[in-house]
């Protein structure tokens, strides 16, 4: 594949060498387009040696071959790593002041960017708004990771590791899975997040948008399955060609899922389910005038739907659970996941990291799939569609 790697001027530019190298070793033809600022951080000879191609920077070189658009037109994938706050702002504004800007504007290829900057810059409202604009345009944003930054500080803003960027970028252009391998299988998928009302206007909820569950429903239907999607407060439109049942609370989700599971071959519990609900729901709005300075809520446990479905599963029925965890240490995360599988009794568990900026409501996801004995049987990074297909591959292999 013809891949353009854009490098902009941040300290993390040295890590772009790892991105270029991984792509070249995977057999891709890589054209580096660096900004002038990028070349202050990493040497042109290094990039030329690693990419095995000349490195272009200047808008006014190669004019005869119309280089400012030719590179973008020939690209099948563009990756910008690192993407600085300044570059992200230029991209959001559609500016083409340099060769990289021209290359991107002249290209119809998927664009993947790996932001790198200090936490304050990443969280600055200008950057937040620019990233939202880019995501709306279908640009894929990988990371940034949370960790040690260039100075003594640490936090969100560190560029994702080169291998993660490469995996996410290649997943964006990965061919769709073979359709038809789930022909006729009845699959129930829960999506979204349950909400537990406190009074007629307020609820306790979570930040799940339902995107991953919907991606699973779309992918399963494309592969021939008969899908029932049970959506809890979905924040995005459910697909028109899939049967959707909308629910609000955990008890409603439990009821709908148990009914649908009675005839299903597979149940995938992608919904984020509230573990507790208020023991009473106030008939009228709870008012601070009558409550005073503190408000005591009494919460009671909700049923664990995944556990109960697994305990009641029919012979041959496959139950897949999700574990959205904030633990960042990979070894610790695996321990948590393995304990969860044992507790829930499901056949597979899809483990993903969630946090303030990862997992929920984004278009990208990174998951590890474990089987009932806690062995890793799959891993995926990329769009939620790509991740959905990797999860469904587990079913395909089993059938
Ligand atoms: O226990 P935890 O919430 O981490 O487990 C997550 C998995 O369990 C998800 O698959 C979720 O859909 C499911 N779950 C459930 N019922 C609950 C809580 C979680 O089915 N009450």
Oligomeric state of shown chains: single chain
The CATH homologous superfamily of the largest domain is called CoaB-like
The total domain count is: 2
Shape call: globular
Q: End-to-end distance, in Å? A: 33 Å
Q: What's the overall average pLDDT, rounded?
A: 91
- Using only CA atoms, what is the Rg? 24 Å
The portion of residues forming beta strands comes to 25-35%
Kindly list the characteristics that best describe this protein.
8-stranded mixed sheet, 14 helices, alpha/beta, 5-stranded parallel sheet, Rossmann fold, binds cytidine-5'-monophosphate, about 400 residues
Describe the structure.
The chain has helices spanning 13-25, 44-51, 67-74, 85-93, 99-105, 119-123, 125-136, 162-172, 211-222, 250-261, 288-291, 305-311, 330-344, 384-398, and strands at residues 2-7, 29-34, 77-83, 111-115, 140-141, 145-148, 154-158, 186-192, 196-199, 202-204, 226-232, 243-247, 266-269, 276-278, 299-301, 318-325, 348-353, 364-371, 376-383. The strands form five sheets. It has an eight-stranded mixed β-sheet, sandwiched between helices. The chain has 399 residues and is α/β, with parallel strands linked by helices. Helix 3 (67-74) crosses helix 5 and helix 4 (85-93) packs across helix 7. The radius of gyration is 24 Å and the shape is globular. The model has no long low-confidence stretch (mean pLDDT 91). It folds into two domains: 2-172, Rossmann fold, CATH 3.40.50.1950; 186-398, CoaB-like (Rossmann fold), CATH 3.40.50.
């Amino acid at each position: 594949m013809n891949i353009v790697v854009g490098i902009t001027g941040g300290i993390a530019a040295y890590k772009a060498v790892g991105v270029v190298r991984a792509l070249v070793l995977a057999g891709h033809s890589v054209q580096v387009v660096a900004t002038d600022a990028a070349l202050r951080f990493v040497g042109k000879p290094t990039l030329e040696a690693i990419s095995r191609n000349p490195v272009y920077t200047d808008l006014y070189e190669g004019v005869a071959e119309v280089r400012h658009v030719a590179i973008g037109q020939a690209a099948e994938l563009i990756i910008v790593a690192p993407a600085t706050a300044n570059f992200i702002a230029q991209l959001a504004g559609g500016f083409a002041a340099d060769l990289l800007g021209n290359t991107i504007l002249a290209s119809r290829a998927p664009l993947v960017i790996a932001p790198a900057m200090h936490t304050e810059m990443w969280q600055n409202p200008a950057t937040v708004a620019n990233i939202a604009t880019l995501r709306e345009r279908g640009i894929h944003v990988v990371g940034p990771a949370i960790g040690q930054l260039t100075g003594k500080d640490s936090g969100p803003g560190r560029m994702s590791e080169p291998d993660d960027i490469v995996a996410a970028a290649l997943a964006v252009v990965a061919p769709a899975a073979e359709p038809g391998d789930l022909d006729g299988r009845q699959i129930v998928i829960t999506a979204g997040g349950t909400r537990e009302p406190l009074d007629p206007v307020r609820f306790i909820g979570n930040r799940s948008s339902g995107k991953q569950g919907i991606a699973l429903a779309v992918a399963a239907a494309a592969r021939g399955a008969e899908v029932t999607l049970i959506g809890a407060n979905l924040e995005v439109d459910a697909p028109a060609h899939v049967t959707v049942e909308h629910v609000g609370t955990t008890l409603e989700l439990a009821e709908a899922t148990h009914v649908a599971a009675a005839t299903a071959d597979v149940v995938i519990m992608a919904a984020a389910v509230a573990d507790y609900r208020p023991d009473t729901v106030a008939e009228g709005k709870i008012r601070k005038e009558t409550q005073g300075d503190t408000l005591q809520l009494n919460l009671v446990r909700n049923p664990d739907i995944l556990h109960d479905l697994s305990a009641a599963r029919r012979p041959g029925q496959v139950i897949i659970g999700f574990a959205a965890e904030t633990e960042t240490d990979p070894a610790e995360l695996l321990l948590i996941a393995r304990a969860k599988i044992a507790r829930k009794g499901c056949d597979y568990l899809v483990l993903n990291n969630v946090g303030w900026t990862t997992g929920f409501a984004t278009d990208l996801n990174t998951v590890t799939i474990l089987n009932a004995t806690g062995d890793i049987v799959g891993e995926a990074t990329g769009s939620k569609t790509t991740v959905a297909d990797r999860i469904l591959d587990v079913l395909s292999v089993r059938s």
